[in-house]
Amino acid sequence: MKAEAPLRVLYAASEAHPLVKTGGLADVAGALPRALRNLGHDLRLVLPAYPAALERAGALRTAAAFQVDGRPLRLLEGRLPGTRVHLYLVDCPALFRRPGHPYLDAGGRPWPDNAERFCVFARAVAELACDRLGRRWRPQVVHCNDWQTGLVPALLALEPVPPAVVFTVHNLAYQGLFPHATFTALGLPDAWWSYQALEFHGRLSFIKGGLVFAHRVNTVSPTYAREIMTPAAGCGLDGLLRHRAHRVSGILNGIDTGVWNPARDPHLAARFHARRLAPRADNRRALRRRLGLDPDDEAVLAVHVGRLVEQKGADIILDALPRLLALGMQVAVLGSGERALEDALRAAARTRPGRVAVHLGYDEGLAHLMEGGADLFLMPSRFEPCGLNQLYSLRYGAVPVVHRVGGLADTVTDAGPAALAAGEATGFVFDAPEPGALAAAVERAVALKRDPRAWTRLQRAGMRQDHSWRRRAGEYLALYRRALADAGPAR
Ligand code: ADP
């Protein structure tokens, strides 16, 4: 195969924007296949046929009817909306056609049959990858993502001539762990019940299928790739990852620069770009009005958007509030998640009306306006595989204030004296996920903001960075070629 020849890649995921989304994985699975397709590669995306996916996918046709574990399945074929990416949906009504969240029931608990759901999905993906569904198409590379596709690499390793397999970890904290009885019920090969395969401290681990059997494992930032090899961030899998260190790497996520473009964003009150930042003030005013904050043009406005869970550290912002408000700032939070955090945030907003605003729920338009109007974007994540919001913030001139961890460490350059002088600074980085450290970083930011020229320079340095998927797609191609080399010739 010539180095520049187009590749045939099957991209397997459990969610993809705009069909179904619970988090950053959907953004990646919606954008990376398109970027690779646009570079001329034969990228095909395969997902479970959830009701939302069936509704939004547009025209679909039945490409195959087959059985997995005695269950009748159909393979549906179409296009990922708005792209030229070939889409396959694995249709198994008993397992996937249920309303609501793809992984959780209405009470927020994992669906009780999740192991079976994603085992059946994995078996279907393996059949497709080995061209046993009559498609006359055989991928050279199969790219799997997170625990829901973890059994695919294991199943493909049983094949006489398997394709090259890449497994991406978007968040190691979610592993797909089930009791031994589930392992037996799924009829998986006995040899897999071993610490060298899928067994993890007496339980079945889906993610280990990917970590053990894929030719290449990557995660969504170089720093997170190093961190997960340490006991502190390895979630018990650091030993295995160190063992495979020569096959583990990190590639930063990109952002959809069409959707996140301040010069064309329909959600903004006023559009702007790096050379014309003045309209941001209109967005800031619109944001204050929308959130019920005082119309105080002098106040520095700091915002936070994200899932309200321990990982993201909204509690750290809450604990830092007294020091932040003492600076005369305003703070706004958009998010949804754990009840206790939601209640605490609501209480903080009630106590400081006009200075603290909290919007509970998921609101894409408001998230855009917050990026387009805020002075500071706070991300005190305790861990962060990549993080997308700091990338949106960089592009929108909302200066990020971040904990030095994972993808945040890789994408934000602290405004220390040397970086400022070199014009390389893009934000403020602090070393501990603690209220005091966050407040100290915000204090530095507020001090620098008194110098409008230095501030504009900081904003522009961030806005000029290229975090497009087009650029990242090249890095994935290089990874695919390494996986192909590992898998050996004849693919
Ligand atoms: P994670 O995948 O861990 O949730 P990321 O930063 O990688 O975190 O991606 C989160 C995505 O979801 C981003 O696109 C972010 O803007 C968006 N998001 C999260 N919560 C909200 C919310 N309440 N309203 C609007 N967008 C949100």
Short description:
The chain is α/β, with parallel strands linked by helices.
Task: Summarize the topology.
Blueprint lengths: L7 E5 L11 H15 L3 E7 L2 H6 L4 E8 L2 E9 L6 E6 L1 H4 L17 H16 L11 E5 L5 H6 L7 E6 L7 E2 L1 H6 L13 E2 L2 E3 H8 L2 E4 L2 H6 L10 H6 L4 E3 L29 H12 L9 E8 L5 H13 L3 E8 L1 H13 L4 E5 L3 H10 L2 E4 L9 H8 L2 E5 L2 H6 L5 H6 L5 E3 L4 H15 L2 H12 L5 H19 L4
Parallel strand pairs: 1-2, 1-6, 2-5, 6-7, 7-11, 11-12, 13-14, 13-16, 14-15, 16-17, 17-18
Antiparallel strand pairs: 3-4, 4-5, 8-10, 9-10
Helix pairs in contact: 1-19, 10-13, 11-17, 14-18
Bound molecules: adenosine-5'-diphosphate.
Highlighted features:
9-stranded mixed sheet; binds adenosine-5'-diphosphate; 19 helices; globular; Rossmann fold; alpha/beta; 491 residues; 6-stranded parallel sheet
Question: What would your notes on this structure say?
Answer:
The chain is built from 19 helices and 18 strands. The protein has about 500 residues and is an alpha/beta fold. It folds into two domains: about 10-255 and about 470-485, 3-Layer(aba) Sandwich (Rossmann fold); about 280-465, 3-Layer(aba) Sandwich (Rossmann fold). Helix 1 crosses helix 19 (about 470-485). The longest helix has 19 residues, at about 470-485. The relative contact order is 0.10. Bound molecules: adenosine-5'-diphosphate. Adenosine-5'-diphosphate binds near residues 27, 307, 362 and 367.
Annotation field: number of helices = 19
Do you know the CATH architecture of the largest domain? 3-Layer(aba) Sandwich
* Overall body shape: globular
The helix content, as a percent range, equals: 25-40%
Just give the CATH class of the largest domain. Alpha Beta
Distance between the termini: 9 Å
Strand order of the largest sheet: 3-4-5-2-1-6-7-11-12
CATH H-level superfamily title of the largest domain: Glycogen Phosphorylase B
